[in-house]
Amino acid sequence: MTTRTATVTWTQANARRIERQGLAAPMASSPDRAVAAMLAAHAQVSSAAELSVGLRLAGATRTEVRRALWNDRTLVRTYGPRGTVHLLTAAELPLWTGALSAIPAGTGPFRKDVRLSADRTEEVLAAVGDALTGAELTIDELSDAVVARTGPWAGDRVMPAFQDMWPRWRQVMHLAGHRGVLCFAPDRGRKVTYTNPGATPLDGPEALAGLVHRYLYAYGPATPQHFAKWLAAPNSWAVSVFAEQAGSGAIEEVAYEGGGPAWLVAGDTDFPAGPARGVRLLPYFDAFTIASQPRERLFPGAAYTRALAGGQAGNHPVLLIDGTVAGVWHQRRSGRRIAVTVEPLSPLTAGQLRELEEQVERVGVVLEGKPELTVGKVTVGPHA
């Protein structure tokens, strides 16, 4: 049963997000469909991405996620929102690259004498795309190929990084992903490799319209400021993007409890009749915890202090109870054994403990290991 409303409560918005994410009940679907429901799965830590995707699917394992990524190629691992590594669907890569390429570029964190000019940036991007077409190269092989196609200036080791200096051209790695000329390929032993996914970006306005629609369907109601935070984009730019979509009738304004005016996809005003229920475990940087706003409602009371690192979501895996963060957890693997420690912020009922045990078993299925649950203090700090 659903209700229609022009005023949306947090409870309604949260329940719908959870339902559409496959967190109310696992989806009988595929890894790419699960990623599409999230829009993107954070994949800086591969096991966290596998868990994010697998927990949304009925009976899925990490092997199925890896197969979708490296064999079926229905998923792509590349630089996504906020310039961080994500899993995106191959089908939506043209939309993503078109939209990400349309976000105004800042000056970047590098000194003026380190930064590339606009012309040299384009020269490097062309070299990256050419070198990776039909190839899978390590970063050193790609660096040699870029320098050979551009000039020694591209290889100048002027970028401070991890107590080392990287060649100048590497400042456009994220941009190469956003332009659709670079993504990750299967590791070669212990070495990361890259390839060219061959994605032709959609036209900027068309891609942005599509991304706004997808974002609001998954995480609405939301404001331009929420959208800007999710993408790490300028607020003023996001306001203009939403204004254009509102002017075309593609999105509509609603009153949103605790957040003032916000936006939905036009006509998409059906919401679950009841609140979210159940116990769930979500890994590092799960898309739901990153994108759901307002954040203080998702992390109420003590959860805001315990489960956020300086206000940043994602650094702690979280325990959800009835749709809100109610604790943190950690897992440590040794062979097939997976030690899972869960720290609830208040005592669990007998029913909640049973659901938690089921969730821990599900973690074990996804990660293809044997889990062991301990309810107690998590002593491991936030993920760096």
Q: How do the strands and helices of this protein lay out in sequence?
A:
Elements: E1 2-4, E2 7-8, H1 10-20, H2 31-38, E3 41-42, H3 46-54, H4 62-71, E4 75-79, E5 85-89, H5 93-101, H6 118-132, E6 137-138, H7 139-149, E7 157-161, E8 164-167, H8 173-178, E9 183-188, E10 191-195, H9 204-219, H10 224-231, H11 235-247, E11 251-256, E12 260-265, E13 270-272, E14 279-282, H12 287-291, H13 295-298, H14 302-306, E15 318-321, E16 324-334, E17 337-344, H15 350-367, E18 370-375
Parallel strand pairs: 2-11, 17-18
Antiparallel strand pairs: 1-13, 3-5, 4-5, 6-10, 7-8, 9-10, 11-12, 14-15, 15-16, 16-17
Helix pairs in contact: 3-4, 5-9, 6-7, 10-11
Describe this entry's structure for a reader:
- By secondary structure, the chain is of the alpha+beta class.
- It starts with a strand and ends in a 9-residue tail after the last strand.
- The model has no long low-confidence stretch (mean pLDDT 93).
Give the helix proportion (percent range): 25-40%
Alpha carbon gap, first and last residue: 42 Å
pLDDT averaged over residues: 93
What overall form do the CA principal axes indicate? globular
Low-pLDDT residue spans: none
By secondary-structure content and strand pairing, the structural class works out as alpha+beta
> What is the tally of helical segments?
15
Widest beta sheet: strand line-up: 14-15-16-17-18
Percent strand: 15-25%
User: Largest sheet at a glance?
Assistant: 5 strands, mixed
Number of strands: 18
- Cα Rg: 21 Å
